[in-house]
Design brief:
Layout: E1 4-6, E2 12-14, E3 17-18, H1 19-26, E4 30-34, H2 35-49, E5 53-58, H3 65-73, E6 77-80, H4 83-91, E7 99-101, H5 108-117, E8 121-124, H6 127-139, E9 144-151, E10 173-174, H7 179-189, E11 193-199, H8 210-230, E12 236-238, H9 256-273, E13 280-283, H10 287-290, E14 294-306, E15 310-315, H11 324-328, E16 335-336, E17 345-351, E18 360-368, E19 376-380, E20 401-405, E21 408-413, H12 418-423
Parallel strand pairs: 4-20, 5-6, 5-13, 6-7, 7-8, 8-9, 9-10, 9-11, 11-12, 12-13, 15-17
Antiparallel strand pairs: 1-2, 2-3, 4-14, 14-15, 14-19, 16-19, 17-18, 20-21
Helix pairs in contact: 2-9, 5-6, 7-8, 8-9
The structure holds ligand LLP.
GO molecular function, one term: pyridoxal phosphate binding
Pathway: Amino-acid biosynthesis; L-lysine biosynthesis via DAP pathway; L-lysine from DL-2,6-diaminopimelate: step 1/1
Family: Belongs to the Orn/Lys/Arg decarboxylase class-II family. LysA subfamily.
Length: about 425
Amino acid sequence: AQTVSRDEHGVVTVGGVDVKALAEEHGTPAYVLDESDFRARARAWRTAFGADADVFYAGKAFLSRAVVRWLHEEGLNLDVCSGGELATALSAGMPADRIALHGNNKSTQEIERAIRAGVGRIVLDSFQEIVRVAHIAQSLGKRQRVQIRITVGVEAHTHEFIATAHEDQKFGIPLAGGQAAEAVRRALKLDGLELIGIHSHIGSQIFDMSGFEVAAHRVVGLLKAIRDEHGVELPEIDLGGGLGIAYTSADDPREPHEIAKALTEIVTRECEAARLRTPRISVEPGRAIVGPTAFTLYEVGTVKPLDGLRTYVSVDGGMSDNIRTALYDAEYSVALVSRTSDAPPMLARVVGKHCESGDIVVKDAFLPGDLAPGDLIAVPATGAYCRSMASNYNHVPRPPVVVVADGASRVIVRRETEEDLLRLDVG
Ligand code: LLP
């Protein structure tokens, strides 16, 4: 967990730095990320899966050059899903063979760049892409290692927008109707491709392991069908990411070693039953590594009690730095971190400064009844999909990512300025 404590005045300290000092030095809003927590989580995943498996951190959750260096040092691999993420990974020195390229509509340029760089694998998402990647590889005189992403038909218990294994959505090739088997048939015929495995990602923010078990069962079923038809045993399977984290005290996440044990056991068991060599397993956690390592620090600007309803607490950011509440009805908690208060709690809603009534950061929260302008409040578990999905709605510059470690803070992604925004406006 983050190394968080409170001093005798109620001021919260994280990674040895107090939040008032952070706000003074870096301004608000700011994402405050605890480096040792990030490294510990990355290491826990790495250790849990051991030498016979690979952990690919999903860069979409949050990616910066510092993050890439930490991952490299901690022995993780990296999943990227765009040219921009690939560029960030390469520029920070991640060896290309430890990078996987994802995406349901990779551009020709992205594919070409990835193959030239020598990425360890490209995950193929459609029949057209199988041919496209094969042609590009061949034209570059290369044979690209690839996996085929399939949809196994699992209904993951999560928000519709982040569930990805049922059939009626854009990712992957359905196992149903023999489509995945047909994709394998085509990929095996193409000289530009070396088919190394099958990929399945069932969704995100999932707590129930049964979806992964069904997915593993079906992926192994496909491996067996491939062996029976082609006499080929594919050496790898990737079971994706999607492990849930605690946003509020109601969530009860699994630990990496429990997940590793469950996944390894089921794959081994299924393979033994099918008399297959157990493939090398890989996983792609994003949120489970970076999510809990950061909180967003906001300053309260206005406090507006609405009689008989609740109190609206406006902060200096909002949906531009955390779209998840508006987009997925996500739940967050919030705490006053710059002082203590004995005032009775009030039912509050933490809202942003944007011109939209859906601009909500924390929908229902109890905060001290004496909350006032100038107070600092923190929203935990904003490390994943907050900075990476941040926008400039209302021309609000995006907040910095400030890292705390060993009693000091440093900026790894600086705050955007109005000049940054104006630089793009060339009309
Ligand atoms: N692998 C693949 C192929 C994925 O598509 C994703 C997430 C991951 C791994 C990582 O999933 P994680 O372990 O972070 O749950 N913006 C949404 C989440 C979308 C995730 C998309 N793919 C959110 O804020 O909840």
